[in-house]
Amino acid sequence: MEYLDSYYFIGLVFEFITTQKLLKRLYRFVETQEKSLNLKIRFIIARVIIQLIGIAVLGITIYVSSLFLLQPNLYLDVLFNEGLFALIKFRIWMIMLRNIFSPYRDELRPIPMDNRSARQLYLWFTLFFAIIEFGSLPVIYLTTVGMDELMVKGIFIPYTLGLNIIILSQIWSQRHKINRMFNAQTGENSPSEPNHPPYFIKELVANSWPFVFTAWLLFLWALWLFKTFMGHWQHAEFVTISWWITLAFPVVDRIFNGLLCNFVKIESLQSPTFEPRARRFIKVLQTGFRILLFGVAIFMLTRAIGANTESLMEASWLQGMLEKGINFTIIVTITYLVWELFNALIEKKLPTEEFDVIASLEGDGGGEGATRAETLLPLIRSCVTAVLVIFVVLSSLHSLGIAITPLLAGAGVVGIAIGFGAQKLVQDILGGLFFLIDDAFRRGEYIELEGLRGTVEKISLRSMQLRHHLGAVQTVPYGEIKTVSNLSRDWITMKLELRLSYDTDIEAVRKIIKKVGKDMLAHEEYGRNFILPLKSQGVMRVEESALIIRMKFTSKPGEQWVIRREAYRRVRDALSEANIHFAHREVRVLLPENKETSADRTENGTHPLLAGAGGAATALLASELAKQDKIDEGGDDGGGDDR
What is the reported pTM? Predict the structure, then answer.
């Protein structure tokens, strides 16, 4: 044994020499860097690689030394090989514990824990794994030298009982620290949040879990001893897996929680709506992970009870249910993870919903809409959500043992029948698809189609919703659309008309309009919205009572309404200062020069020509009022001055 100890000591010295300089360089590099998540991951990976290289040097050194110095001996060879294997496994355990608890570098610790608790748990687990790995060496040696099998099994009773007592004593002594570790605010709901369970339930769990853990661990120990003494070694291995899952659950659960909390901080996932959902995201995945661990432990236990024992129908039935439950949990958890990640990446490129609502209420319409990505991504999200829901339903039914082939066949037949009866629906969907491919409109743009005008508020697979400037929501199926006029792309030209009298100086009006255009172009608020300034187009037509002079300007979409109002006001004031007045609609009646006779008058005493003139004036006024009503309803200029 002394020779063996010297071999192990030489191997440990070579391992220390190999890893010490590399680890010092790694620590010096980390001290100068910002302690980010990326650095923490790279540090842990680099340290694990260096330490694994040291373990390889340890094993090779000890094995090569034994070839030259160790004398051939059956019993000594067995003890040496088992001791080397136990030492390597113990060193691997230490590497895992060192990177999990990081007892001397709290800034690089992957789980939330204070320094004192981390060091205590690190030392305790080191001692625990040393007992496990090296405590089995005497049993192996006694089995090799030919000790009776029953006596060897008898040694397991005090050995394994002592091991479980050590575990339980540590659990009971550290139960308050374990409670604090699980109550650390690392993504799960805090007591002040509405979704947090009631306080008495939390207290009940915190006070009762050590008793449940103790009873469960002793049950596993008793079952393992029973299977071992009965010679069912495979069943005992299944119990051992459940035992290890139980022992590792607190640490593994906190590591997984820490990884989730760091994962939701990744920059590419941040969006205005992801942060409120981050806690729910962590809670759902954490719950799924716990159910998975618990299900695997119970499944292994049922294998230990019912494996190769077909007479235990209850155990076989329970195994099948647990297997289906584990598959269902895995499918739902992974699908939820994919949906949340996809949703976060989409919402990162979308504006907040509150901003859209305020803009639609305060805007004049016709402004620049959303980008093409912001228009298409909600539709893509809806399609992906539908696909994931269908996938989860079918996969869950299949995992639960329900045949989905007849369902798929029936769905195909129903789909064909619906396809024949819903040709209009298919036409709407295909029409919308090609409109979106052509980029004919986007969410937030002001468009005109089929006699309707409004801002595109919502786009679905079958139809769109237009918000009229007076508030009405108009739903238009894509199949009904033949032509789309987009008033929110690139630029918009407004043409304004002035009614002036026949004796107006046209050149003076042109100069006045030009001066007003220059003043507005230089204005701090309006000037930046012009693409082409306000200018006169001269006389466009001559009516019975006025000259119609047109002026126009080109501006950014959505700004034309404000500029139009301001242009009318400034031109009116400038014309008034130049003593140029607008012409009013009038009806002129020419009466005969001779005196009226009583025969020329109507029964009520009114001359027929005057009555006709009044009728013409009334018709003209009615026409103007009808036109104004049309403008008020948005049928003429799509969001004019009345807004």
Answer: 0.56
